[in-house]
Amino acid sequence: MERKHKLLNWQLATWTQLSKAKLAHTLPHALLLWGTEHESLYYFGKLWLQNLVCISKERDPQQGPCHQCTACHWFTAATHPDFLELTPEGNSQWIQVDQARTLVAFVQQTAASSGPKVVLIHPAENLNVNASNALLKTLEEPPANTYILLLTTQPNRLAATVRSRCRQQKLPQPTDMELVVWLKERGYDENQIGLATGLAPGAPYTALHLIESNFAEFEPLASGLERLLMASDSTSAVAEAFTKDQAIHLNWFSKLISLLIRRRLDPNREVPEKLQLLSEYSEKVSVGRLIEYLDGISQQHRLLQIHSGLNRQLAWEALLLEWQAMFRSDVSNQR
Question: What is the DSSP letter of 171?
Fold first, then answer.
C-alpha cells in the first residue's frame, strides 16, 4: 500500500459530509465506515485520518491533507505518535484483546502534538469477542479530541454492542459506468475492463489488481472449471490445485458464479472473452440452481474459516463434484 492514493469521485459526497461535521464540531468520535471493498475503505480511511492530524494552516480541510507538513510526513511513514492502527497480527485472523487494551491505554495518554489522537481499526469484523468487550467503554466515552475509525465490509458481523456505540456511515461504491471510466483513464482495453468489472463490480482496486496481474489469481480457477466441464481433468487433481490458496480460489469462485447469475438476469450484459465458454455452459443451468450453488460456496468458505482442521481436499472435491452434477441434472430436467 505504498502508492499515494487520492480521493475517488464517487467518494466526494461522503468526504464533504464528514468535513462539514468536523467544522461544525459534530464529527462522531467513533465512526463505523462500511462498504463493499476493503481497500476502498482503507485508502479513504487513512486519507481522512491524515486530514485530521494535518497541521497546515494554508489548506482547506475539505480538500484533504497537505502532504507536506511534519504531521503528514509522520503519518505516511507510520511514525505519527498520535496515530494507532489495529489489524490482525501474525498468522491470526482476529484482532485480539491485548491489542484492544493497547488502544484503551493509547487514547488515555496525553497527545504528543497539538492535534487529535486518531485510531484505525480494520477489518472491524475481525475483532474477537474479548477485544470487542474491552473497547465498549472507550467507544462510548472516548477522551476529548480522539477519533476512532472502524472499517468493515461486513457490518452485521460486528457485535451489536460495538455497532450501537458508533455512528455508521456507508462509503459509496462506483456505478458500472464510473468504474469503466476510471479504468479507461488508466489506459486499459475494453476486454480487460469487461472481465475485471464483471468479476469485481463496484470494487475499483480489486478490478485494478486483476488487470495489473493479468488475472493471475483468477485464471487457474476458470481454467480448472472449464477442464472439469469438458472432462479433460479429474476432480481430485483440480481440487488439489485449489487447496493451496483456498481462500483466494473460493473468493474468485463466488465472484465468478455471481457474474454468471448477473449475465443470466441481464442477457444484454456483454460476456468477457475469457468467460465465453463458462457463460455458454451456464445457459444450461437455471438461475435458481446457480444461486443455490453460490450459497453453498459461501457456506464452505465460512466452514473453512471456522474449522482449520477441515479436510480441504475433500471439501473442494465435494464442491467440484456438485459443479459437474449441476450441469448434468439441469440439462436432464430440461429435456
Answer: P
Q: Over pLDDT 90: what percentage of the chain?
A: 84
Q: What is the pLDDT of residues 19-38, one digit of tens each?
A: 999 999 999 999 999 999 99
Give the Cα separation of 267 and 254 in Å (integer). 20
Question: For the chain, how big is the Rg over CA atoms in Å?
Answer: 23
The pLDDT of residue 62: 85
For the segment 192-209, the average pLDDT, to the nearest whole number, is: 96
Cell, residue 322: 456438485
The answer to whether residue 2 sits within a structural domain is no
**Using CB atoms within 10 A of its CB, is residue 134 exposed (0-12), middle (13-18) or buried (19+)?**
buried
User: Could you tell me which residues are beta bridge partners of residue 32?
Assistant: 150, 168
pLDDT of 4 reads 64
Please check whether residue 293 lies inside any domain of the structure: yes
CA–CA separation, 74 and 316 (whole Å): 46
**Rounded CA separation 283/297 (Å):** 20
Pairing of strands 117-121, 146-152: parallel
The total number of structural domains in the chain stands at 2
Q: How far apart are CA 267 and CA 148, in angstroms?
A: 45
- Residue with C-alpha cell 505504498? 2
Please give the single-letter amino acid code of residue 309.
G
Which residues constitute the domain of residue 290? 217-333
Q: How confident is the prediction for the chain on average, in pLDDT?
A: 93
Q: What is the pTM of this model?
A: 0.91
| Cross-strand pairs, 120 | 85, 149
The whole-angstrom separation of Cα 123 and Cα 253 is 22
Q: Do both 141 and 40 map to the same domain?
A: yes
Q: Is the pLDDT of residue 305 over 80?
A: no
- How many whole angstroms from its chain centre is CA 118? 22
